Each structure stands twice: as C-alpha cells, then as structure tokens.
Amino acid sequence: MIDSATAAGLDPATLSDLLRVAGSPGFDRLTEQLRRTGGCTAPIRLTGGTKLLDPATKTVIHAYNTDAEPGGVLRVACGNRRASRCPACAWTYAGDTYHLIRAGLTGDPGKGTPDTIRNHPRVFATLTAPSFGPVHNRPSPRACRCGIRHPEDAPELGTPLDPSSYDYAGAVLWNNHASELWRYFTIYLRREIAARAGLTQKAAREQSRVSFGKVAEYQKRGAVHFHAVIRFDGPDGPHTPPPAWATLDLLTDAIHAAAARVRVIVPANEDYGFVNDRVLQWGTQLDVQPIGAFGNGEELTEQAVAAYVAKYATKAAETTGTVDHPVGNKEALILLDVPDHPRRLMEACMDLDAVYPDRRLRAWAHMLGFRGHFSTKSRRYSTTLGALRQVRADYRAAQQRTALGLPDPDEHPESTLLVIAHWAYAGHGATPGESWLAANIRRDLQHNREHARELRAQLEASTEQEW
Fold first, then answer.
1. InterPro entries this protein is in (predicted)?
2. Res 303: pLDDT
3. Which sign, positive or negative, has the C-alpha torsion 324, 327, 331, 332?
C-alpha cells in the first residue's frame, strides 16, 4: 500500500504521521474503513454502535461497537460534492448525476423512466450571462482584442481588457439573481409553448409536460451560466408520449423566445449611489442543440450530454481562482493570494452587501455572488440523487446480511430483525498520513474502475462486430 519511493517525496510531517499510521496495530482495519468510504480524505468520525435483535425472543443476533475500531471511531464518507474538497465523494456525486441525467435521456425503468423516452423531443440548451465588459478571449481565427493570440492555458483569459471600466457590480448581481432568471425562464417557456401550439396554458398543461435537468458552470470571467436538458413529455410525464404538436422545432423556438422575455429588476438605492433600477437578463449567446439518441453521426449524443453535466456538477467558483469557503473581509483575500479579477468580484460582493443586505452577498462572496443549487431537475425528469444513494445503502446492507448469514427480509418477512443504533459525532477530517493513504486508495479505485470500463466498452464493440 505504501510505496517507499513515493512516500520519500512527502513533507516531513505527513511522512512522520504516515509511518505512525502504518505501524499502528489497527492499520489493516483503518485501510478497510477508508476503502469503504471510497478514499474520502475528510471522513466524518462517529462513535457508538448497533445491535440486531430478534423481536420475538429479544436475542441479540449481532452487535457492533466502535470501541474496537482504530482510534475508537467509525469513518464514513463526508459526501461533499466539491472536487476541491473531496475528490472521492465528488467522483461519487458526479457518477450519480451522470446516471440521473442519462436516465432522463435513454430511459431506465429501474430509475422511473421508460425506454420510450428516447422518442421524446429533447434539447441541450446553454443560457449565458450578458457582457459586463470586454475580456481577453480566443476568437477564431482572429486574435484577441488586445492583439495577442492567447494559448489555451493563458492566465489572462476571461479577465477584463480594462478592469477600471468593467462592471463588477453588475457581474456579481447577475450571479446573485441567476436562479431567479432561471425560474422566470421556466415560467415563460411554458407560456411560449402554449402560444405556439395555439392553446391556453391550461390546455397545454393538460396535453404535455416540460421536464428538465440542469447544472451551473462558471465561465472564466466568473459569470455563471446554465446547461440544461429540456424534454417534452406527455400529460402524465415520461410514461406518456407528447402530443403531435410538441415538436423539436416548437421547443427550440419557445426556448429562444422565453429567454428573450426574462427580466429581473434590481431596485435602485440612492443612499449608496444606485440611482437607477438595474435590469438583469440573459445574454445573447443562447445555444440550443437537439440530442441524438443512438450516436449515429449526431453531434450531441445522450452519453456526451450526461457526461458533460456530471463533469460540472462537482465544480464551483474555485475554478475561476477564488477559494471554496466563505471569506470574512477584503484583507483575507490578499492573504489567500486570490488573483486580481476574482478578487475584485469578491470585493464587489462585500461592497454591495450593505446596499442589498437581503441578498447576502458577503456570505456568498466566495461564490462570486451565486447562491443557487448547482444541479437541479424538475420532479418528473427521472430519478433522484436520494434514490440512487438508497440503492447503494441497500446494497451495503445486503452485503452485511450475507456476511452475517442473515436471511433477506423481503424473501422472509417473518424473520425481520429489530435494529437499535446509537451514534455520536466525534469529529471530521483525517490526519496527514490518513489523508495520504485515502488519496492513494481513491486513485487505485478510480484506476480499476476506468480499466473495467474500457474492458466493457471493448467487449461491447466486439459483440457488435460479431453481429
């Protein structure tokens, strides 16, 4: 597990703690715990235990207590979706998001969507923020406005050409109201669909449903934009076909019209020099692409869309150079060495907090003002993240029953056992040596999964060739 050549490159504190962990009597059990968390580097530590009782005889079938565990605690995954906080739990979250989005595209009866859903009109739409001032970019085939052809990894990409004239206040206020812009978009979308179908809104609702799953992504300039799968369904959701008038072209036209209608007003505040109301709206760069079902030459396939959404479900504003935790004051931004452009955006949040206290801009400065959920879906789009987590929990419970030689309660309801549990929070996080160990476990697990996925893809390809 511990490679001496790799360990030699560690800092002295981590290496010292790693040697302590490796020499402890509970090392094998600690490794097993970390493996069960998927290699979580910041696990939650619990104390307590469980008992399985036969309710008829009151006999203890099995008992577990953390007293015998390494450090006297049980380590469970933190569940944080941010890749910057916990790559292992973020990987699990991204996988769940992938299956959630894909189930709403390909169909999965086990996840609440029939296979016939592939015949429903659906698009992948990207709604962006407007311009707040010219920034360095990579237009093709021309050079940037500054006269330089920037490489793909140039640090100045997304930063203003002239920071003194850039609308930092407008940028963070737009981020702060982005979720409201989306809410109004979904309202107007249903209205535009009804208008194009020549129906009242009530009649349109009785004949069709619009479902969506979306994710938020930060552009390099620090503005949030949304990627959304938008799908036509029948009156009872994905289990019924949409009406004949619910075409792909109608959906596309309605999306463009709805986005153009959205307006959110930020009221003036003359006490702070904001003498006019500010009108927030979507940017002109609206991209709507149909999603291909089987990948037969289509530019955008179901798998590609699901993978794209899952990729950004674990990322946040830290991709622009900010930090992934709240910051109390401007002085801290200097100590944290935040780059100039995201620092100015965060400072704008702090300055505007007194102007619009109900928007809690200071509290969300590390998110550049954005305070919404990163991944959301409509109720009938497909399954839920909670349902996917429950599947894993049930699988683990079945594994434990098999290990203990206990019957399946679904097959033998008369043998149902009583579970008595008592848990207490004992802390959060890991020592440097434990974190290093967990990171290596996560790397190995991910490598094994990727290798298995490649083998499965090769097997499927060879099977298709034989047929």
1. RepSA, RepSA_streptomyces
2. 86
3. negative
